[in-house]
């Protein structure tokens, strides 16, 4: 079945409305990694809702980033921050226990602060997707599934009701210098139309100029690397992207957002 099969114009228009809070998560791959904790703090003070941590093993994708030890150390500096760990690794089942070392619960709200997202392309061919979902749950973390651009959204269907978040990649994972793939928004619409209260995250080439496409499709969690760390006004960039999700979603935010200047032209 194609993603767009049976998809009416009315359902396209309705799919963006959801019950999920707008959240912006800077990808720390684009910060000065020699000062990771400091750079993470800078984004959080500028209004970021969580930290997106890309873990690459050099096998699933060509690049290598950092592993659970670095994330556990980062947790010491940011004990109350939500860590969104995106594992681009060949065998995520071997990483679950180590990543659980960095899990945390917010002392005031009781919110789980650790999310473990793995690629279905790494587990489904080996018949291990359900096993990894169960393993992550057993270790007390939130669990998510990521989908690369070439993979049909229907592969997620058996697991959508079980996961806390669906991550739609809008670039090919592990390759730099790519542009936002707007056609991936059909996948976002597919999930949003079926799960109005599901967290949907997009990652890859999302900046103030492209965020509206993701927001209109129904994404509520926005990952942005250069769009946060490589702009003159980080706080305004974060606020602008969050405002887009609020405008095209349902207006919800984890924190009340003050009125702001919604002017994307200043980033050109």
Quick tags:
alpha/beta; 16% strand; 268 residues; TIM Barrel; 8-stranded parallel beta sheet; globular; disordered C terminus
Radius of gyration: 17 Å
CATH architecture: Alpha-Beta Barrel
Strand order of the biggest β-sheet: 1-8-7-6-5-4-3-2
Can you summarize the main beta sheet?
A: 8 strands, parallel
Number of helices: 10
Count of domains: 1
> What overall form do the CA principal axes indicate?
globular
List SSEs in N-to-C order. Answer: HEHEHEHEHHEEHEHEHH
CATH fold group: TIM Barrel
Mean pLDDT: 89
Q: What's the CATH class label?
A: Alpha Beta
Estimate what percentage of residues fall within beta strands: 15-25%
- Low-pLDDT windows of residues: 4-14, 256-268
CATH homologous superfamily - what is it?
Aldolase class I
Distance between the termini: 39 Å
Helix content: 25-40%
Which secondary-structure class do the elements indicate? alpha/beta
How many β-strands, per DSSP?
8
């Amino acid at each position: 079945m194609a993603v767009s099969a049976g998809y009416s114009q009315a359902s396209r228009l309705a799919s963006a409305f959801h019950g999920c809070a707008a959240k912006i998560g800077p990808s720390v791959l684009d910060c000065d990694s020699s000062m990771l904790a400091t750079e993470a703090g800078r984004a959080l003070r500028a209004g970021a809702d969580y930290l997106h941590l890309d873990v690459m093993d050099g096998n699933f994708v060509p690049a290598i980033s950092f592993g659970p030890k670095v994330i556990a150390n980062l947790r010491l500096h940011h004990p109350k921050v939500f860590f969104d760990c995106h594992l681009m690794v060949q065998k995520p089942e071997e990483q679950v226990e180590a990543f659980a070392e960095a899990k945390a619960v917010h002392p005031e709200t009781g919110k789980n602060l650790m999310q473990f997202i793995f690629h279905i392309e790494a587990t489904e061919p080996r018949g291990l997707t359900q096993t990894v979902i169960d393993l992550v749950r057993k270790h007390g973390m939130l669990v998510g599934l990521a989908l690369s651009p070439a993979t049909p959204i229907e592969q997620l269907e058996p697991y959508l009701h079980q996961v806390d978040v669906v991550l739609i990649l809008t670039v090919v994972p592990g390759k730099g210098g790519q542009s936002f793939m707007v056609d991936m928004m059909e996948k976002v619409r597919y999930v949003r139309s079926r799960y109005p209260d599901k967290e949907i995250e997009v990652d890859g080439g999302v900046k103030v100029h492209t965020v509206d496409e993701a927001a209109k499709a129904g994404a509520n969690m926005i990952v942005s690397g250069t769009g946060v760390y490589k702009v003159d006004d980080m706080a305004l960039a974060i606020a602008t992207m969050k405002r887009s999700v609020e405008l095209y979603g349902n207006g919800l935010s984890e924190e009340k957002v003050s009125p702001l200047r919604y002017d994307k032209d200043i980033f050109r």
